Amino acid sequence: MAWLVVSVSLIVIWVASLCKIFFGATSSSRATILDDGKNPQKKNVMFVIAHPDDESMFFSPTINYLTSNVYNLHILCLSTGNADGMGNIRKNELHQACAVLKVPLQQLKVLDHPNLQDGFGQVWNHDLLTEIIEEEVTKHDIHTIITFDNYGVSGHCNHRDVHRGVLTFLLTNSGRHIKAWELVSLNIFRKYCGPVDIWLSILSAKKHPSNVIIINEQPWKSFKAMAQHLSQWVWFRKLFVSFSSYTYTNTLNRIIP
C-alpha cells in the first residue's frame, strides 16, 4: 500500500511540475541576469561550450529564454567533438541544432584547434582559451558570457577547462566590465529528477538569492534540438534528456573573479 501512495505522489508532483512549465513558468532572471538598461537587441550574449550538443543537453532553458526575449546570441564551441572521429558530422549537427534553437548560424563558431581536442585526459591550455575568448568578445562586442561552472555538470575535464579559461579571461580583462554567469552543477538526485527540480531550484534560490533560476517554457524545443545530434542520439541520451533537470531548468550563478 505504501508503494502505491509513493507512486501516486510522484506522479502528482511530476504532473504539477509540467503544469508549472506549460502554464505558469516564470524566470527570476527577467529582473537580474542581463538587465543593465540596454535594448535586448543590442545585448550580445556568448555561450562558451566545449562540444557540440552541450548547448542542447545543458543550456537550452537559458537559450530558449534569451531567444524568446530577442537577445543577440553567439555560441563559441571550442571543439568539434572529434573523440570518436566524427568531428565533421557533429559540427554539422550543431548547425542544425542551432537552427532549431534560433541561434543565427553566422553567430556560431566551432573550433578545430590541434591543442583543443575532445576527450578525457585532453588538457586545454587556459591561456590559449583566454586568447580565443578575448578575440571573440572583442569581435562581437560581447557584454555577457554564459558557460560551465568549475565542475562542468558532468565533471568532464574539457568542461572544467572552459570554465577556467573564462575565469582567466575575466581576471585579465577586469577593466572591460563583462558579466559572466556559470551553469550550476547539481547533485545526482537533483540532476535526474526532471521537471520536479523546478521546485527544488526555487527553494534553493531562496537560500542563495544571487542565483538565477530560468525555467524552460519550451522543453519540446530542447528535445528537438538534441535530436539533431543524430550521432549522439542513442537510447541513454534520450533518457538523459527526458529525466535531466537541465532540460527543464537552469540555475545560473554570477562569476566574480
TrEMBL record:
Query: What Pfam families does the database record attribute to this sequence?
Result: PIG-L
- Secretion signal, residue range per the UniProt entry: 1-19
Question: Would the keyword Signal turn up in this protein's UniProt record?
Answer: yes
| Keywords from the UniProt entry | Signal
InterPro entries, per the entry: GlcNAc_PI_deacetylase-related, LmbE-like_dom_sf
Recorded hits in Gene3D superfamilies, A to Z, give: LmbE-like
**EC numbers, comma separated:** 3.5.1.89
Q: Does the keyword Signal apply?
A: yes
Similarity comment text for this entry = Belongs to the PIGL family.
Q: What is this protein called?
A: N-acetylglucosaminylphosphatidylinositol deacetylase
Its source organism is Camelina sativa
- Gene symbol? LOC104781731
